[in-house]
Amino acid sequence: MTDTNHDGGADMATLDEGRAADEIADLSARIAQANEEYHTLDAPVLSDAEYDALKLRLLALERAFPQLARPDSPTQAVGAAPAEGFGKVVHAQRMMSLENGFSAEDVTDFVARVRSFLGLRDTPAFTAEPKIDGLSLSLRYENGVLVQAATRGDGAVGENVTANARTIADIPHRLTGDVPALLEVRGEVYMTHSDFQRLNAAEGGRVFANPRNAAAGSLRQIDPAVTASRPLRFFAYGWGQLSEPLADTQIGAVQRLGALGFQTNPLTRLCHDADGMIATWAAIEQQRATLGYDIDGVVYKVNDLSYQTRLGYRSTTPRWALAHKFPAETAWTRLDRIDIQVGRTGALSPIARLEPVTVGGVVVSNATLHNEDYIAGRDSTGAPIREGRDIREGDWVKVYRAGDVIPKIADVDLSRRPQGSQPYAFPETCPQCGSDAIREPGDSVRRCTGGMACPAQAVEKLKHFVSRAAFDIEGLGAKQIEMFFADPVLPIREPADIFTLAQRDTRNLARLKNREGFGARSAEKLFAAIEDKRRIPLARLIFALGIRHVGEVAAGILARHFGTWDALIAAIDAAAREPAHAADDKTRRTVLADSPHWSELTAINGIGSVLVQSLVTTLTQEAERASIDRLITQIEAIPAAARQAEETAVSGKTLVFTGTLERMTRAEAKARAEAMGAKVAGSVSAKTDLLIAGPGAGSKAAKAAALGVTVIDEDEWLRIAGSA
């Protein structure tokens, strides 16, 4: 797949490590936010095409700078956290995402990778099926009876929507015939175009933006009666946990699901080479407008299920499948004005306010403009994009979508530019607090320096603090945070204020129970919910602080490494006393690499220098630290226990493969080893634990012998890997 720049990203050849780290952090934050908007809130802001472009750029950066790949990278995540209001379901087998392709070249590359991984001389068969634009659903049947339905959620944990799923006519309650004792069917909940139009008309106007949002919103109704009133449909296309195989092939298994009573897509085809796959994609695209439901591409899967098993999975995607996406749809409209929004990290994000335009049945009036370089028609190195055409208020602009919304401006029509228009002057001060908005070297984003003194940042940080993955205080969500932040009598301006709210309420004449929207019972419930969160796991506390670059995974790593808040803050303070801030970026990294306390932090597996710099800077700023110290006096951070990993014979060991493996390819062997918890290196060193040597092993085997490294043959490796 060809690497492409994202929204002004620099060419890979011109990037140094510092700038790459900053771009990775920026991309990670934008993609994570888009995941939550799409999967959890059913209110996407980014189009599929823009989301895909961001993810491709991030993947390219992580490949070029593997040492900067973050453990909480969105490239290693599936979906987003389950929404509130439903019980949680832990999937017996993860619900994975799919690798995306955008061109015929991507398809031929995919086929070549499959052949290479499996060591095949001939091309295996593939199935091709429409990629339904709906909501993923897993149905669990025991002895033929539907016992549980769950959404994908974040891939590991979804929402229990069993009662709602039972109201969908396409989902059988009981299966008959030759049914496996345990069968987990996976598929997509969707809504047809005609049903979507009738639903919006019945609701008195445009309630949902598109059929996908309508389907997701309908399935996630707390009251199953509401779901029952909505015209939802279901296509089955796969499976999860099984007590026995459905068939030997993908197409055979899908046909078996059809025989059991599930709706399967009639456009599914068997293809025997890349040309056949691409021809099927083109044929389905031609039928797209007449199908009566939304699709956004074609999914290819290796047909032979034994090959699927051998190919296995990456962290979030199967190696045996590819989603070949359709190109984006476009439209022209006028850009009325450019507004600036300020996020919790102080990032100034430009938003285009558009004359409403319809593309593919969706009316949009807003689009992202990314950053000041993108508006100016250049990338971060100063090279032109859009042939140097800048974007101005009043311009006629080309916007595009691929699925849900129109978030991106792709081009400008200079022939229609109003006379006297002026280039957009990106603000150098924060529009919310007036503080300087600076752009650090290598950063594509300008940021407000006001910190918690900036009301926009303060509010967004507080919203993050009470979010689901952080303190998750029932009854204190984003809406309530905005209300309390503006309250002159019982304000919440920093996290510690949350935990003094009840105390301040008791000594105040204008009691919360007397406020609009509250009563005695609701006020007491809120105070009790706050009290319940005074004890919080250390990882949640670290994440809740909203420190730039510190996501959930990194917070967990830090918590397990240090165990307690006191140990973490002592390490941060020690690192801060080292000469980190007196040098320029490049020199600072060199100095810090030689500093013992800094090295202790960066040596933690999964924690890089950019994250550590952000952590040290944030936790040693006087105002920020004082605010956090006030919070710590109000709560108790529960110490973290070290994670107990599942042990295998090679867990934590470093393996090297050399020579020719005869019963599995090198790629397959490496994937198996990594799945068992081993690290696979390319060369032998004193840190190597095991060398697997096939015929033709040369210098690596000799070096291993000299170093006393254990050497085994392929047969012994297969016994260890359980594949003999």
Protein architecture, described:
The strands form seven sheets. This protein has a five-stranded mixed β-sheet with strand order 2-11-10-3-9. Strands 14-13-12-15-16 form a five-stranded antiparallel β-sheet, covered by helices on one side. Helix 19 packs across helix 21. It folds into four domains: about 160 residues, Nucleic acid-binding proteins (OB fold (Dihydrolipoamide Acetyltransferase, E2P)); about 240 residues, DNA ligase/mRNA capping enzyme (D-amino Acid Aminotransferase, Chain A, domain 1, 2-Layer Sandwich); about 100 residues, DNA polymerase, domain 1, CATH 1.10.150; about 70 residues, BRCT domain (Rossmann fold, 3-Layer(aba) Sandwich). The relative contact order is 0.09. The protein is built from 26 helices and 24 strands. The chain is about 35% helix and about 20% strand. The N terminus is likely disordered.
